[in-house]
Every structure is written in C-alpha cells, then in structure tokens.
Write a structure and sequence with these properties.
Helix content: 55-70%
Shape: globular
Mean pLDDT: 89
Strand order of the largest sheet: 2-7-6-8-9
Strand content: under 5%
Structural class: mainly alpha
Number of domains: 3
Largest sheet: 5 strands, mixed
Radius of gyration: 27 Å
Number of strands: 9
Low-confidence stretches: none
Number of helices: 25
Distance between the termini: 80 Å
C-alpha cells in the first residue's frame, strides 16, 4: 500500500470507521482537560478552610513517619486526652514533669477520621511536594509575588481527578436507570456544576466521599436488580450487601457524619433485597460495624471517646457552646450537654435554613424544580422507583444529620465546608431532574427536529450558568487573604524551633504552612492562656485579621477584661503587653493587620 493510500485509509477509519469513536473520545478528553485548565486559571484558590488545612498537615505527618499525630492543637483535645490519661494512670501526677495532655510530644489527632488523610499521605509520597513557599517559579508567582502554594495545587488536582471519576460514575448510573440521553446530559450537568468544582479545589473530603457514595448507589442498584431475578445467587447477594455496608463504613471513616447513611442503606436492603432481606441487612450492618470498630477502639484508647472532639459536634453551635467556644475551652463544663432543649432548638433552627435555601443551592439550581416535580410521576422501571426512594431517605437523613452536626465552620464558609452532606446528592438529583426534563420534552410539539437539540442545549446552558459566569468573569486571585498569607505564616513559624509551641487564631494554617506545633487561641488571655502555658510554655502568639479586624467597640473596648480583644486594645494603647504576660517582643511590619509576639527577638536585626 502506497503512502497516499495509507493516508486515505487512515482518514476513512477516522471519519466513518472504528477510529471515529476513538476520535470522539479523544476530543471529549481534550475538552474536559481544557475545562479543568480554564477553571484553575480563572477560579482556583489556595486552601481556604480550617478542615482542609487540618487534613493536609495531618497527612504530611503520616507521610513523614510521625504517625497519626497533629501539629494543630485544640484546647478541648488536650482536655480529653489529659482527662483520659489521668483516669488511666491515677499516679501520673507523681511523674516529673507530667505530660498527661501529650503536648510536649507529638499530640495524637482525635478530630479527623483516617481515610482521607491516609490517601493524601500516599499522594505526598508519590508526588514531589515542596512545602517551602516558592517565589522564583512563574507557575507559583505573579510578577514575583506569591500566588499559588504548590502543595495546595497538587491536592486540588487530585480532587479534580476525583470529580471527573464522579462524572463518569454519574453517566453509568444514569444509563443503568434510564437511557444514554439522560446519561449524557446528567454527566454534562455534573461536569458543569460550579459548586462541585469549588469543592474540588477546596481540599475537603467531599469529592472522595461523593465517589464513595456513588459507588454505594451502584452497589444498591445491582442488589435491587439481582433480587428481581428468579433465583438470585445467595452468595452473590450477601457479598453485595456486605460491600454496601463496607462502603458505608469507609464513608464514615472519611467523614463521621456520613455514618448516618447506614440508616437508608439498611432500610433499602430491608425493603428491596429479596427473600433473604433480613440476612442481607444484617450482613451490611456487620460489615459497617467491623470497618468502624478498630478506629473507635483506637479513639477510646487515646481519648476515652469513640469519635474524639468530632463526637461533640452536636453540642457545638447551641446556646451552651456557641461559635468555637467548645474547641477553644481548656476546662469545658459539659454537664449542660445532657439537656434536650439545645439539641431541639439546633435541629429545627438549622432545618429551617436547609429547607429554605441550602438544598436549593446544593441541588444544582434550576434542576431542583424538575427533581421535585418528578417525584410525583410514576416510573415504569422498578429499579428507578426504588433508587428514588433511597434518594428520598438519604435526603431526610442527611438533612437531620447536617442540622445536628452544623458548627461554626458552616458560618465561616456557608456552602463549601465539610458539614455539607446535601451536596452528596447533587449527581442523583441531576439524574432524576434530567429524566423528568426528557419526559416533558417528549410532550413538546416542535416544528423542526433540530429545535429539540436547541432546547436541550438551552437547558444545559441554563443549569450551568454559575459555571459560565465563573469562567467568563474576572480572574479570582488564588491568595486567600485575609487571613491566610502563606509566606508570612511560614516566615513567622520558622523563627521558632520545631519543638516550640505557638498560639494563634489560625492554628491550622500555622500547622500546615509553617509546620510548627500551634494551639488554638484560648477563650481568654489570662486563666486559660496560663493553663496552657503551664502544660508547655507558649513561645509565640500570632494573630491575623481574623482577630485584628474585630469590631472595635464590642469586641475590643467593651470586651471582658480577660478577653483577647481587651488584651489587644490594652497592648495598642499602652504600647506594652499586660503585666506578667510572658511574650513581650514584636517585630516590625505586622501591625495593624497582624500581631506577632514572642519571648525574645528571633528575627534578623536591621542594621
């Protein structure tokens, strides 16, 4: 065959032969990669939430062989560990010096479930993470100024890859439930969901948890399908049920609140898994329990609680412990936590916000109307109806779980936070909303067939408007300041020795960017501060705009005498720290946006 004939043969294959299919797939992959590149170029931001930085610094400790330990110290975590160690070792007070809070050594983390940090730790082993702020490469700087933090960007790329996997899983789930038209449009809407992209670059556990949830739905769909066979294989059904329970357990070890999902999973198996439904439900519950038990035992051994500080999220945000008061408490009074009233108020107060706004935002905007309208139509497919019931059960359970588990983290970042469970339902909402859209489209009388494609394209564009606006608007600076400016955080932290203790209003950022042990600022600048200082001397205090931008009158001038607002006001007016406060030295260049105090001059002295 001559070269010209070979070229003609290749062109024929690409146009009408088997190669045309691969060419379309290649074009699709290129389009998706281009979308990701454009989003990162226009809307990428460095880590902006405490949960993401906390998980990242924990993962780095694991990857460096330091075990499941944390540099971000919560006073409440110290309290739980110290109380538990004192109960185990009543004679520990005779030690010289006692370290029941495990603050002088590596403090065990009792706030984060293990799956996501372990996965990130593996990523840090494989990729060339550079934790030093890079001010030389043009990729990480903008005109010589800090722009992107390389480890944050790598974590975002990992989660964006998970998002693309979720898009593929949405396609196959929709195709199993409906047809290829619903599958393609559902996948397009998932890919064009701006909220999911924001979650993907946030560094939170959401993308991993969403992939686990979609896998769980695919397992349940296979269980339901197999149960309708004339003679389903018992071993296969038990394996699927156990796998569903296992995946739910893995999800709970990714985010504790996801453990609520075992309720709709168990109900689904009890209703729709065939003649041996009781045994299938039991298999799922046993697998779920076996996955969680080792980690619960570990937490009990370390802190005397099954879920560490995370187990007290239900009491946070109530009138007993508003804002972050519980986690910042050195000696919290937990007797009032036995009351029922604060939980009832918290549940109904947060449910109101979820039902009037949060779900509408999480459900993909315009699609939620079609989703709710589609609930009232009868689907012919048995599997479709049953998965719809599972979705509704998840909606109810997740709404209650999110209401009770809501803390101040949801106030700091209202939509993109680790407490948002409803966002996990977005792909399923897209699938059922799109199916109802095609039902309506079939009833439309259009003069031209081509108009059908125009209506579909218009609907897709309408649903993806937030993404379109994001990509077409002005570029968003990736620097999340205030309050996080990694170069200054890293510089301040490196004035300290690795074994010295800092205190800050952004300890998660100091732990991640500065790689120094840092405790959350206590509730007051007197008793609580000196209680921590007696456990281990605090060598530096680092305050950012998160505190320095407080309301001048209510948070500074009229604040209680022992508060940090009063401490700042007194320090600025008297030009010296209060008497007996051990940190008296401050470098130039921090005030008025930030404050850095330490026990001695640690920075180069300008000549």
């Amino acid at each position: 065959m001559s070269p010209s004939e070979q070229i003609q043969w290749l062109i024929h294959k690409l146009e009408v032969g088997a190669g045309s299919r691969y060419l379309r797939y290649f074009a699709l992959v290129v389009g998706v990669v281009a979308l990701a590149f454009l989003y990162d170029l226009r809307a990428y931001r460095n880590l902006a939430t405490p949960e993401a930085m906390d998980a990242a610094q924990l993962a780095r400790n694991i990857s460096e062989g330091k075990g499941y330990t944390t540099l971000f110290l919560r006073p409440f975590s110290l309290y739980l560990v110290q109380k538990h160690e004192a109960a185990k070792n009543p004679d520990a007070g005779t030690l010289t010096p006692p370290d029941l809070a495990q603050i002088k050594t590596a403090h065990p983390d009792i706030s984060n479930p293990p799956v996501y940090p372990l996965l990130l730790a593996g990523l840090m082993k494989v990729l060339p993470f550079d934790y030093t702020v890079n001010l030389k490469s043009q990729l990480w700087t903008n005109n010589g100024n800090f722009w992107r933090y390389q480890p944050d960007f790598f974590i975002a790329l990992f989660n964006e890859a998970l998002l693309l996997i979720i898009v593929v899983m949405t396609f196959f789930l929709a195709k199993k439930l409906f047809d290829s038209n619903v599958a393609w449009l559902s996948a397009i809407l998932t890919l064009g969901c701006e909220l999911l992209w924001r979650f993907s670059v946030s560094g939170l556990t959401t993308m991993l948890l969403l992939a686990i949830f979609m896998g769980l739905v695919l397992f349940l769909l296979e269980i339901e399908r197999s149960s309708r066979e004339s003679r389903p294989h018992p071993g296969w059904m038990f394996s699927l049920a156990a796998a569903a329970g296992f995946l739910t357990g893995i999800g709970a070890l990714t985010r504790y609140a996801f453990g609520w999902a075992i309720i709709p999973v168990a109900l689904f198996l009890l209703l729709f898994s065939g003649q041996r439904r009781l045994w299938h439900t039991l298999a799922a519950l046993v697998a779920f329990t076996l996955v969680l038990t080792p980690w619960i035992i570990r937490n009990e051994v370390v802190s005397g609680t099954p879920f560490g500080t995370a187990g007290f999220a239900v009491v946070e945000g109530t009138f007993i412990f508003p804002q972050f008061q519980l986690e910042r408490s050195v000696q919290p009074e937990l007797t009032h936590a036995l009351w029922l009233k604060p939980y009832v108020q918290k549940l109904f107060g947060n449910l109101r916000g979820i039902l009037t706004g949060d779900f509408l935002k999480s459900a993909g905007g315009w699609v939620y109307a079609l989703f709710f309208a589609g609930l009232f139509i009868g689907f012919r497919g048995t599997g479709v109806r049953r998965i719809r019931y599972f979705l509704l059960m998840c909606l109810g359970v997740f709404a209650v779980g999110q209401s009770l588990g809501r803390t101040q983290l949801s106030e700091v970042s209202p939509e993109v936070n680790s407490e948002n469970l409803l966002v996990l339902l977005v792909p399923l909402v897209f699938v059922f909303g799109v199916s109802f859209f095609f039902t309506l489209l079939r009833e439309m009388t259009l003069p031209l067939v081509q108009l059908r494609y125009a209506v579909i394209a218009g609907f897709a564009a309408l649903c993806c408007l937030p993404m379109i606006f994001t990509l077409s608007s002005a570029k968003t600076p990736p620097v999340v300041y205030p309050p996080y400016y990694p170069p200054q955080i890293q510089q301040s932290a490196r004035w300290m020795q690795p074994d010295e203790l800092m205190m800050s209003d952004v300890p998660w950022a100091v732990a991640w960017y500065g790689q120094r042990q840092c405790i959350w600022i206590t509730l007051d600048a007197q008793d609580d501060f000196f209680a921590v200082n007696s456990l281990k001397p605090v060598k530096a205090l680092y305050l950012t705009p998160q505190t320095m931008d407080g309301k001048f009158v209510t948070e500074w001038m009229e604040a209680p005498k022992r508060s940090w607002g009063n401490f700042i006001f007194q320090t600025l007016t008297d030009k010296r720290v209060p008497d007996k406060f051990p940190l008296t030295k401050a470098p130039v260049g921090f005030f008025p946006e930030q404050m850095f105090l330490t026990d001695r001059e640690r920075w180069p002295i300008a000549k």
